[in-house]
Amino acid sequence: MNAPSKLYEGKAKILYATDDPGILLTYFKDDATAFNAQKRGNIAGKGAINCAISTHLFQLLEAHGIATHWIDSPAPTEMRVKAVKILPIEVVVRNIAAGSLCQQTGIALGTVLAEPLVDLYYKNDSLGDPLLTLQRLLLMQLATAEQAEQLRLKALAINQILSAFFQSCGITLVDFKLEFGLDAQQQILLADEISPDTCRLWNQAERDPARRVMDKDRFRQDLGNVEAGYQQVLERVLAQPIQLGG
Ligand code: UDP
Q1: pLDDT tens digits, residue range 22-59?
Q2: Architecture of domain 85-224
Q3: How far is the CA of 220 from the centre of ligand 1 (A)?
Q4: Closest Cα to atom 19, ligand 1: which residue?
Q5: Longest CA–CA separation in the chain, Å
Q6: pTM for this one?
Q7: Is the C-beta atom of 154 inside 6 A of ligand 1?
Q8: Measured from the CB, is residue 123 less than 6 Å from ligand 1?
Q9: Ligand 1 center to residue 177 CA distance, Å?
């Protein structure tokens, strides 16, 4: 067998081709970046932790009828996924105000939103991932109106499943980012990863705003114990069996 050929190297993952054109191999790295890669670092063991958490959450979502790109995870830092064409849209769901929502609106950190907010961003590092309007999304032909509505509905459905799951782990799902792709049949599949790199997760046993953080904000804000936060998320997630919900 030939050495796997690298298709793409991102900030946290590397994508390889496999012998099957319909299947790609994702390798999860320990590298961490924040603020559009202006801050760089390494979180020991992060690749394996994020791969394991994403694996569990993709299985959970599949069990609830959400189509994902996940096939299997043959090694601790490796995931085999269905080849999809990634839509250049970051779909963020927010349950509690944090991060850029607070910075851009003045809403206080920790404000519980009356209903989940879905924000779409243009996935483009050189432009700094700007917030999209539906009209701009259509103008730029990033997706059709129907696809944009499907993304919104899928993101809200995923939020319900993940929020209930994290609640059972004693963790509050504050907000998270999703990416979707189109398969050969133009079906929308959930892609990328779901991990403490892409979610804000607060430990419900801690009230202190710095101590409660279990996600990449520990790295972004230099809160220390970054690995420990990720590790604790992994342990709690793996302790919860995947159950079919209503
Ligand atoms: N997020 C992400 N990748 C990005 C931008 C955001 O995974 O390129 C996640 C982030 O971890 C958080 C959520 O999306 O869980 C909302 O992030 P926000 O818009 O508040 O931006 P940030 O404060 O992270 O710059």
Answers
A1: 999 999 999 999 999 999 999 999 999 999 999 999 99
A2: 2-Layer Sandwich (3.30)
A3: 11
A4: 100
A5: 55
A6: 0.97
A7: no
A8: no
A9: 6
